Amino acid sequence: MPLQPVVRRSVPDEVFDQVLAEVVDGEIGAGETLPSERRLAEVLGVSRPAVREALQRMAQTRLLDVRHGGATTVRDFRRYAGLDLLPQLLVRKGSLDAAVARSILEARLAIGPSVAALAAERGGATLGALLTDCVDALAATDDGVERQVHALTFWDLVVDAADSVVFRLMFNSLRAAYEPALEALAPAMAEEVGQAGAYRVLTAAISAGDPDTARAAADRVLRPATASLSSALDALAHHQEQR
Q1: Is 179 within 8 Å of 145 (Cβ atoms)?
Q2: How far apart are the two ends of the chain, measured CA to CA in Å?
Q3: DSSP readout, 175-201?
Q4: Is the pLDDT of residue 202 over 60?
Q5: Cβ–Cβ under 8 Å, residues 19 and 54
Q6: pLDDT digits (tens, 9 = 90+) for 71-126
Q7: Using 50, 70 and 90 to split pLDDT, how confident is the model at 215?
Q8: Cβ-contact 20, 58 below 8 angstroms
Q9: pLDDT confidence of 243, banded at 50, 70, 90?
Q10: Cα radius of gyration (the chain)
């Protein structure tokens, strides 16, 4: 029996996830008023402080409009939420949301080449050696999860070199959504993280301060997994529709 570590979660976390699922699934629509804290506590079988903490977290992520002494209304998460919501959107009710996963892939393919181009312009003399170390480590292992970890370290260095706080925060959110699924994604990511030669071409372009070549090389690195995962997600979405 393959046992998994037991994850202890707080009651506010559970309340947050349940209310979030209702909002994201449209069971509680934008503009609708949430039940009172007392009523939510009764329905969920938890304390009012736990409900209050969960609702405060949702308000901080701009999913709720909380008025002191008044009603708490739901906001349209598509208009108000930030990228920090991605991990919760990616896996809901124990299942991967194919549409959200596809959006992450599309964003990664669109953003990665631009980040690489900026890194080539701004990276400096020491970046090439650090990137080469990552690629050497990636090439030295056959383990799919380890290769993904080395690839993430590679892109972490590239994002730092791009010196863009917006790209950094976007990368952080995409990584937070992606890292929990490293093992599950290993087969689909094998083609991408197994092409050490493409990473070396990208490293050389960034080291040479050549943004155009870096942009093209980054696309070459990222596109294979984007194509294979998109096909897998299409199959998953079809399967979910048939259920």
Answers
A1: no
A2: 28
A3: HHHHGGGHHHHHHHHHHHHT-HHHHHH
A4: yes
A5: yes
A6: 889 999 888 888 878 877 877 666 777 778 788 888 889 999 999 999 999 998 88
A7: very high
A8: yes
A9: low
A10: 21
Alpha helices in the chain (DSSP H): 11-24, 37-44, 48-60, 77-80, 86-90, 98-122, 127-139, 144-162, 165-178, 182-193, 196-207, 211-242
What is the reported pTM?
0.76
Beta-strand relationship, 91-92 and 95-96? antiparallel
Q: CB–CB of 211/117 below 8 Å?
A: yes
pLDDT band at 140; cut points 50, 70, 90: very high
And the tokens for 11?
């009651």
Torsion angle in degrees (nearest 10) through CA of 233, 238, 241, 243: -100
Asked if 219 and 109 touch (Cβ cutoff 8 Å), the reply is yes
